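ok so heres the complex, two chains, lmk if somethin looks off
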Amino acid sequence: MKKKFKLDEVDCANCAAKMEDAIRKIDGVKEVSVNFMTQKMTLEAEDDSFEAILDEACKVIAKVEPDCEVIR
Amino acid sequence: MSKRLKRQLKQILIGLSIFAVLMVVEHTCGFPGILGTRWGELVLYLIPYLIAGRDVVKKCFLGIKNRQLLDECFLMTLATVGAFVTGENSEAVAVMLFYQVGEWFQSYAVGKSRRSITELMDIAPDFANVERADGSIEEVDPEEVQIGDTLVIRAGEKIPVDGTVLEGQSMVNTSALTGESVPRSAVPGDQIISGCINGEGLLKIRAEKKYEDSTVAQILELVENASSKKSKTENFITRFARYYTPIVVAGAVILALIPPIFTGNWMNWMMRACTFLVISCPCALVISVPLSFFGGIGAASNIGVLVKGSNYLEQMAHLDTVVSDKTGTLTEGVFHVTRVVPAEGVLEETMLRNAAIVESLSTHPIAKSIQAAYTEVLEPGLARDARNISGQGLIAKVGDSTVYVGNKRLMEENGIDYREIQDGESTVVYVAADGKFQGAILISDEIKDSAVKAIREMKQEGVRHVVMLTGDRKGIAEAVAEKLSVDEFRAELLPADKVQAVEELLARMSGDKKDGSNGKKKLAFIGDGINDAPVLSRADVGIAMGSMGSDAAIEAADVVIMDDDIGKIPRTIRIARQTVGIAYQNIAFALFIKILFLILGALGIIGMWWAVFADVGVAVICILNSMRMLKRKGL
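and the predicted structre for the whole thing:
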């Protein structure tokens, strides 16, 4: 499953890259891109565990940027 | 302004006011009693410090917890705490405030430019009005529209999905998609494309595609993905950062540890090391280079040109050779009868009628042009016993006579005494009836008005070589090539030959380079995107024209010109060159300031203030420079 989420908001280009790297390491993530310019995250992951993976990704994002919120 | 920016601005302003009051009190009458001691002052100054800089301190601890040391927040905290320890309280607060102001302004500028770029591409419809079976109208999200739904589009509304007009008449503004300011008319039966804005009339359309398959959704998807295809310049920055960061960190460690062994004064060297690290932050580069390219892509989409990646925009700036297909690109792609030459004693009307009747059996573009030239109505079934002679023409019975319509070989093979017409630019169709020559019809494809100018402008923008490829006869190609003043042409090519021609040109450009790459010089191919997909993908940059609504062309090309105005190519090259220019300026400026300040910082000539400037100040300047791309008018 592939889904797009809006991020509110990624503050720096470097943070976006950090998030992307960290989310890619989560188990079950096929592909992820965090786009600083459009403030969007595209996540592709296993269908059955998508929600769990998304939760994990949100945690990772909160670690890099505490103020950044994923709008689901 | 986002909620967070507002909150941060408030924090900065409160911190700044408290700081100002403290400074005034300290320098006029001094702090009374216990507040006048060293500890008292520290506590007082910590108040504005924590109000303005608590995000930074918080992130610093988070960074330590997540083992992400050496980020900016860690450095700023270390540097300011160092200042507090050495008793320079006001210095510590001022540096933190200055840093926060810079950071705030940076976020603000990035947010603003992001918004102005998305505004440029503001084509997404917000809602759709669906007419239900009972005649009621319901407003829904465009994504909920089903194929076959009837949609009502009022004056000034955006067309939510691709569809066909059922009722009503209007002029539709396509400028958001094509950059074309002249509205198109829409009448029942017309295809209508999502993202266009309805003019004065009320339209009812039938949804032909779901939102996610509609033109507007595809375009938005493309533009959003464009910034993830990185240009060489961006990749250079990433590679550069990989070496730069460890070198700078090593430099800072040496600065903090080695000199104090000889001179003592640990605190001073520690501060210099911190200054050094703050200066070194590569933020200005990391943000401003992609922002320049994003701005360039935005500016291009504003004139109706989709660039599918930063890398393609960068290559457009280095075009050396432009190869173009002829038909439909440089020429209108529509054949017209330009001259009718009846034989002596034959009426023009008679000859043209015979030709039109026979050609009504064919769907070839040339046949269609002859049918169009004969304005009288022809009832069907006038031609009988038609024979199609491949590579020659048609023979058919019209009434009692046998009519021959075709090229000179058809005339020769059938022993007809014809008068040959020499005209390089046109295709000549000869007509004969019952063995007697009736005359000739000259047909040609008109050169686009804008093509000559576009080629001249491309040359002004640094393109050295313009090549035309065509499947047409050599004579026609030669005449068109001369009119357009292209440097070279290749005629009588089959589709596969075009790929080969492009490969030859690429090989010639690479010249004696051993790796076979063409270095900085790039080759673009311009086609209509319908049957030249292999050529589009073989060229460095594949440009498809006239592709509004054509999924195949949007798919195959790297750069898509939404309408068929070839004049947009030089404009896109101009945008590309300016974008690359701005990116280079940013890199040069940021690196120069950083290296200069790193040296000055290591020598202890400049302090934390300047270090903060070199970090956020330079970033803000670079961002503002990138935004120039969006302000340009009349490109």
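quick notes: The CA atoms of residues 383 and 398 of chain B lie 5 Å apart. thats all i got rn
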